[in-house]
Every structure is written in structure tokens, then in C-alpha cells.
Amino acid sequence: MLLVVAAIIRGPDGRILLSQRPAHKHKGGCWEFPGGKVEAGEALDTALARELEEELGLRVRACQPFMTIEHHYPELSVRLCFREVTAFEGQPVGREGQPVQWFTPGELGALDFPEANQPVVKALALPDQWLILPTPLPADWREALPRSIAAGATLVYLRGVEEVSLLRELVQCCHAGGALALVADDPALATAVAADGVHLRQQQAMRLKQKPAQPWISMACHDQASLAHAVALGADMVLLSPVRETPTHPGQPGMGWPSFRALAEGLPLPVYALGGVTPAEVRQAREAGARGVAGIRGFWRSC
User: Fold this and answer.
1) CATH number reported for the structural domain that contains residue 249 in this entry
2) In what order do the strands lie in the sheet with 31-32?
3) Residues 148 and 282 in one domain
4) 214 lies in the same domain as 246
5) Number of domain units in the chain
6) 35 assigned to a ligand binding site
């Protein structure tokens, strides 16, 4: 399997730097995240710094894990390790004659990428933090929900709310703060309240043969079989749990980060870590193959 490291480079205005593959190479003409092959025995960050200096004239000062994806083309298999460059020096120039260009995140979906890059394009539209609504709904939710979203939890799972008018108000509150809102299990309800999609519990999702027609579909997963089903179904993202034992599920032991990594790393969709994790563990979760972290406590900002 070919080991490749690739960079997600954001400019000061939030645009993302891409380069175009030469016509004579595999997937020629496609846009891609800059990077290249990792040499035998070479550390990922070292390889990334070398590739970006050689290809673009950029000097990497800091980076962090983003996602790791394995993809199998008919002609070769690749393991792509994506790193998010958080500090760099220099102005990008295509030193090998390749076009380079900055794009807004909203423009990425219309571009032609190699298939292996597609999960990252989707993941870039998602945040590091995924908030699960506390149940029962706290009385101060009109103050606490906007505060939670402002703290970075711009993906919200609205569960345990049966009153349609209240659910619609919660969705509106999410949208006012710039957050995506998912409802539980019911695509028709999601449409009725103008939510952004549906989160499927594992038991329900395992019975489905076709992905529901919603902009975003997430799925709860607890094992390898459910993760494989999520990939086959075409889910946009998954919640993988439990990382640790939690007060809401006493007696259910957590899998721990090593087992989480064995399940999550390399999957072709964003994975969020759930179960006793906090917003402070985003980097650790990414090291284990996650896109981000999810939860209730630590994510809900009560008054």
C-alpha cells in the first residue's frame, strides 16, 4: 500500500490551498490537497514538511492530525494521512509547474478530486465538536444552546424532543448560531422541522438497505460490523462509542483509544469519538483516527 501524506492549508481568510495533478500522472487533472509519498522510515510530519517545501516553497511551522483514509483503486491502494497545517511561512508557488489555487470551503464540492480525497472534502464542512442535547431538555436551553454553539459545537444532535413546535425552535436556534441540526431517526420529521439531517441509532440503521434522502445522515456505531454497514450505506459520518465508561451507561466498559483507533483509522468517512471524552481531547481523538469529539457533559454550556 502506498503511504501518502497530504496537507490541509488554510490562508488567513479561511480559503484552502489546492494543487492540480499533472495530466500524465494517476488521476491527472484533478485537484488535490498538496503532499506526496512518505519515504521508508520517514515520520509523517517530516515528510509533509519536505513535500511542501519541494512542491510549493512553503515552510511548515506547525501541523496536527486531521484524518487517515485508506482507498483502493483498481490500479493501486493508498493510505492517505491528512495533516492540518496551522502555521507556515512563504507564498505558495507551483515549483513543479503545477497550478495552485486558493478556494473557499464552499467551492470544494464542485471541484474534481480523486476519489480518495472525497471524505476529506466532506469532513472539512464539519466541526471538531458535536453536541448531543441533554435529556430532559434543560429549562435554560435558550441561553445554553447558543453558548454551546459559540464555544465550537456547531453540529448538534437534537434528541428526546417530541413536540414538533419545540423541535422546530431548537433547529432555528442552531441555524441562528451557524450550527447543523440533526434529529433522531425520522427523515420526514427532519424535513418538517427544516433540520439538516438525521442521526440513526445503530439498531435502526442496521435494518436499512438504502441511505435516507437527507443532506446529512449520521449513524451510531459500536463495533466493526456497524461501521462496515455505515460505509456500505453511504453514511456521511458516524459516532463511535464508548471510548470510556460514562455515567449515562454505567457498567458498560469503554473500548479505550487503542481499540478506537483500530476501528476508526482508515475509514472513508468522518468518525466522531463519543463516551467520556471532552472538547479538550480533539487532538488525541484525531491521533486515533477521529474527525472530532462528541458528548453532552463538557459540551453543554449551562448558565
Assistant:
1) 3.20.20.70
2) 31-32, 16-20, 100-103
3) yes
4) yes
5) 2
6) yes
Low-confidence ranges of the chain (pLDDT < 50): none
Is 32 annotated to bind a ligand? Reply is: yes
CB 180 within 8 A of CB 171: no
Bond before 114 cis per omega within 30 degrees? no
Domain extent, residue 51, equals: 2-113
pTM score of the predicted model:
0.85
26 is an annotated ligand-binding site residue: yes
Nearest-Å Rg of the Cα atoms of the chain is 20
C-beta separation of 100 from 92 below 8 A: yes
How far is 226 from 223, CA to CA, in rounded Å?
Answer: 6
177 is in an annotated binding site: no
Q: Residue holding cell 482507498? A: 71
Residue 287 known to bind ligand = no
Same domain, 163 and 211: yes
Query: Per the annotation, does 245 bind a ligand?
Result: no
Q: State the average pLDDT for the chain.
A: 93
pLDDT at residue number 249: 67
Do 100 and 6 lie in one domain? The reply is: yes
Bond from prior residue into 215 cis (ω within 30 degrees of 0): no
